[in-house]
Amino acid sequence: MLVSGRIIVGPDGKPREYELKDPEKLPENVRRFLEFHIPRWEFDPPLLDNKPVALDNLMDIHLKAVREGEGMRFQLAGASFRPSAAKTPYEIRPRRMKPPAFPTLPDSVAGDVGAVVYVVLKIGPHGKVLEALDEQVNLHFVPDAQVADA
Length: 150
Description:
By secondary structure, the protein is mostly beta strands.
């Protein structure tokens, strides 16, 4: 499940406030899971001109359901953050997550677009990928905005 929203990270690297997109459409247990975990996240303190600032960022949270006994539980599969403005001199980085390497884009477009790609894999009995298909691609444009008030 993909949950989108925005988060303001304070100068101390802790979430100051967050907002989920269409929270009323989320199952109650998903909202409770996120309400418990998001305030506990930690980020490297955001800096602008070597001074701590509060930053307003868009976020995508990827949750997956994991079988547990007779039921299911949610697990954070990943989260991505991007400035709410294009061509900003900052970004936030999760303190405990190491992001994978991604292909780079030319500087003329690198800060303006992003994407989430869902890939469906057919795995063989020996654990090797037999087939890979892109199921869905969500492209997004990052509009100009400003650093959040500190």
